[in-house]
Amino acid sequence: MTLVPAPEIDVRFGAPEAVATPWAEVARTLREAELYWLTTVRRDGRPHVTPLIGVTGGAGQEVHFCTGLREQKARNLGHGRRVALTTGANAWNRGLDVVVEGVAVPVTGRAALREIAEAYETKYGDDWHFDVGDGVFGSGDDAAAVFRVEPVKVLAFAKDPHGQTRYRFPASA
């Protein structure tokens, strides 16, 4: 588990009365999100953005997601692991938007995969039951790689009042 760094409010991007968003609120937003948007980069440098579901781990700072081995995001992650993951409220004056910039790290250990599979089912119900295979969820054509996004920088965009909080984490390998 990585320690959460101190928040930094960026006064250039918010109301004068804005204060730093506490990590507990950022972690709750990540934990409770039903949907995330993942940005990966294609081999030619074009971005690829897709919605997906996920679950958190650690101190709420690591989001786990899975992708079929033949999907575009899996191919993109095969040549570059830097990602951006976003979630939040699609509203101007309420809620919190969170952007996690980091590195997608494969999760392959059976115990970790089992724990993540249970977290998916707890969060999303029986429709999202995953069997743990050999280093992946499932097997064969239905196999899905599992990744953990290790944060490098997290931005929290508060909306009432508007304010931008930054958390910087040590860079992943």
Characteristic key phrases:
single chain; alpha+beta; Pnp Oxidase, Chain A; 9-stranded antiparallel beta sheet; 3 helices; 9 strands; globular; Pyridox_Oxase_N; F420H2_bilvrd_red/Heme_oxyg; pyridoxamine phosphate oxidase activity; Split_barrel_FMN-bd; EC 1.-.-.-
Folded structure, characterized:
Residues 24-155 form the Pyridoxamine 5'-phosphate oxidase N-terminal domain. Keywords: Oxidoreductase. InterPro entries: F420H2_bilvrd_red/Heme_oxyg (IPR052019), Pyridox_Oxase_N (IPR011576), Split_barrel_FMN-bd (IPR012349). This is Pyridoxamine 5'-phosphate oxidase family protein. The structure is a single chain. This protein is of the alpha+beta class and 173 residues long. The protein has one domain: Electron Transport, Fmn-binding Protein, Chain A (Pnp Oxidase, Chain A, Roll), CATH 2.30.110.10. Helix content is 18%, strand content 38%. It is built from three helices and nine strands, in the order βαββββαββαββ. It has helices spanning 23-32, 72-77, 110-124; strands spanning 8-10, 36-41, 47-52, 55-57, 62-68, 82-87, 96-107, 144-159, 162-168. Strands 1, 2, 3, 4, 5, 6, 7, 8 and 9 form a nine-stranded antiparallel β-sheet that branches. A hairpin with a 4-residue loop joins β4 (55-57) and β5.
